[in-house]
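User: Please predict the structure of the protein below. I'd like the answer in structure-token form so I can feed it into my own downstream comparison script.

Assistant: Understood. Taking the following sequence of 115 residues as input:
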Amino acid sequence: MREADRYLELFRGRWRYVRRVPRAVSHLDTRGKLQVALGTASLETARIRRDAMEDADTFYWASLQTGQAGKAVEQRYEAAQMRAKALGFTYRSWTILWPMSLWRGLSSAFCPSRA
């Protein structure tokens, strides 16, 4: 399996996100193995949704490791999962988006054919 397709599994022509709970938090998260249908046959779309699910899981497990277990952490995790399942839209921090929009503005100013 290629790194680009980590945690992705093709099942009956549709992609799903499959990941094991890390051993370090397995005593706090007893789910064992996560399997989430990504609702797409497109590998490109599956990768986008996987990235969002992976971020949500990583953040959730990091929160558990720092002792932040509780209802608020679970609610944030569930909200992040819902965003990940949305139609390809994922949360991005303004620190990521602002440089991208700045680059687009600069590239259109200096390379009008790319606008």
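That's the full token string. The helical segments are 43-65, 71-85, 94-110.
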